[in-house]
């Protein structure tokens, strides 16, 4: 089978190689999956660079989120077992961690529903306890993770402010339903948030960026607000001033979605059921900006790493005879 592999960590365009390798063999408790679609995620870029908290043995195939087909014909969402990631024709995954792909979504949309939307749901509901009528500020609102948070915030009855970088991404955030869109390249985030909220600030901040975005968040979070730290796409990990959190009465909440698989797997199943319901209603739908073929993966991962993509970029694989949908 064909698979993209990393032999030496580095920038995606240089480090990723498309190779012919044997199909992976499932072990006890694992299943083989034909890859129908694989969603590109920022952790894939970090994996290729050797900067992620998980470092699979070399050589490895990245790709942490797929929609696949089991040998017995089930269409499922899965997190492949590294080093056999999703940028390949076949993967292996834990049988107990498979989730049924929602019937309302096609393969590419189903592949993009898992990690980003689960992270958004846990961040907004389990960690921040977002309430109807509250104001939610989402950084990188036109990106894959941010767009999921925007949709989930609107579904929860929040007023959503989206922060983006550039006019094209601003239009995307507007189309997603943001009540206010702030272009950080031309506008001051703090003053715009305070103006829009009558000086109160945002009740909940969803931050997958870090760096300057976190600094702005701390300046415009409301009394008893909550800042959810999701990631550091900027590459800059901030050092929060805890005295500032004390005097302004706000909370800084960390979110590592992967821990729930070990600590509370039942919560992941319950979240997936809720996401499936919202997808069936049409309340949420992954923002697929680009479908790519297998040879285009290295370039697409590089563009994702550089922050030049909008929404979700998804690898769409040719369907084998007998595959449904």
Task: Report what the structure shows.
With 325 residues, the protein is an alpha/beta fold. The chain folds into two domains: 2-113 and 286-316, Medium-chain alcohol dehydrogenases, catalytic domain (Quinone Oxidoreductase, Chain A, domain 1); 119-254, 3-Layer(aba) Sandwich (Rossmann fold), CATH 3.40.50. The chain has twelve helices and 15 strands. Strands 3, 4, 5, 6, 7, 14 and 15 form a seven-stranded mixed sheet that branches. Strands 10-9-8-11-12-13 form a six-stranded parallel sheet, sandwiched between helices. The longest helix has 17 residues, at 265-281. It is globular, with a radius of gyration of 19 Å. The mean pLDDT is 94.
Give a quick rundown of the structure.
InterPro entries: ADH-like_C (IPR013149), ADH-like_N (IPR013154), ER (IPR020843), GroES-like_sf (IPR011032), NAD(P)-bd_dom_sf (IPR036291), Quin_OxRdtase/zeta-crystal_CS (IPR002364), Zn-ADH-like_protein (IPR051397). It contains twelve helices and 15 strands.
Domains, number: 2
Low-confidence region ranges: none
Helicity, as a percent range: 25-40%
Q: What structural class results from the helix and strand content?
A: alpha/beta
At the first level of CATH, the class of the largest domain is Alpha Beta
The CATH topology of the largest domain is given as Quinone Oxidoreductase, Chain A, domain 1
Shape: globular
Described by strand count, sense and barrel closure, the largest sheet is: 7 strands, mixed
* Estimated share of beta-strand residues: 15-25%
- Gyration radius over CA: 19 Å
Q: CATH homologous superfamily of the largest domain?
A: Medium-chain alcohol dehydrogenases, catalytic domain
Identify the CATH architecture of the largest domain. Answer: Alpha-Beta Complex
What is the overall pLDDT average?
94
- Give the count of helical stretches: 12
Q: How many E strands?
A: 15
Indicate the multimeric state.
single chain
Q: Whole-Å distance between the termini?
A: 22 Å
Order of helices and strands: EHEEHEEEEHHEHEHEHEHEHEHHEHE
Pfam families: ADH_N (PF08240), ADH_zinc_N (PF00107)
EC number: 1.6.5.5
Domain Enoyl reductase (ER): 11-315
GO molecular function: quinone reductase (NADPH) activity
